Amino acid sequence: MSDVLNVEVRENMGTAATRKLRDAGSIPAVVYGHGGENQHVSVCRKEVELLMRHHSKHVQLAGAASDHVLVKDVQWDPLGIEVLHMDLVRVSLTEKVTVTIAVKLHGVAIGLNHHGVMNEILHSVDILVPAIKIPEHVELNINDLDVGQSKTAADIELPEGATLVTDPTAVVVQMNAPAGDKGTDAEAEGTSEPEVIGAKNEDE
Fold it and tell me: Where would I find the Large ribosomal subunit protein bL25 L25 domain in this sequence (predicted)?
């Protein structure tokens, strides 16, 4: 189920009007795409904050507009705390769209029991998915991830109807050996007897 944003038409533009709008607890946004005209609207800040917490991509508009939209771009303040502006692009519920989705690791890697060091390399992937079925995140099971192994984008569990756009060979997470562990080769080298300086050669 998509989140709902109640929007109102913005009558006044410009810096002063935008500042006044934000002071009143609203955020400016623009709705565009699908052959329709650009529509300048305002959204309640509390609704936007809830939307951000849900990591929602697909949104149903209500009030001054009734479109289904995707959150295309979000402009934040310099501290990354408050949303300053949003771009909302219209979509049809029957079309597929390419979106960037967060990857959530699921389970406890067996390599951690072997003192491995887990390194998460890729935190999100691009998928092609029906607009009405955009997930909040996708999951990657790491229960069987052992030292010296890795998981790629191809191992991610995708929702029904979704296709991976990111390179399937891209490494998402890997389990490295503990720092200072040089492996069995180094151990084998360590078992050889040290050379005694000045020792007499038996052939002499």
Answer: 5-88
Tokens of 102: 């967060």
For residue 195, being part of any structural domain is answered with no
How far is the first Cα of the chain from the last one, in angstroms, to the nearest whole number? 88
Mean pLDDT of 2-19: 85
Q: What is the CATH number of the domain that holds 171?
A: 2.170.120.20
Number of domains within the chain: 2
User: What is the arrangement of strands in the sheet containing 171-176, beginning at the earlier edge strand?
Assistant: 117-120, 171-176, 150-152
Domain boundary among 63, 91, 119: 91
3-state helix/strand/coil string of the chain? CCEEEEEEECCCCCHHHHHHHHHCCEEEEEEEECCEEEEEEEEEHHHHHHHHHHCCCEEEEEECCCCEEEEEEEEECCCCCCEEEEEEEECCCCCEEEEEEEEEEECCCHHHHHCCEEEECCCEEEEEEEHHHCCCEEEEECCCCCCCCEEEHHHCECCCCCEECCCCCCEEEEEECCCCCCHHHHHHHHCCCCCCCCCCCCCC
The answer to whether residue 139 sits within a structural domain is yes
Same domain, 11 and 73: yes
Q: Which domain holds residue 108?
A: 97-188
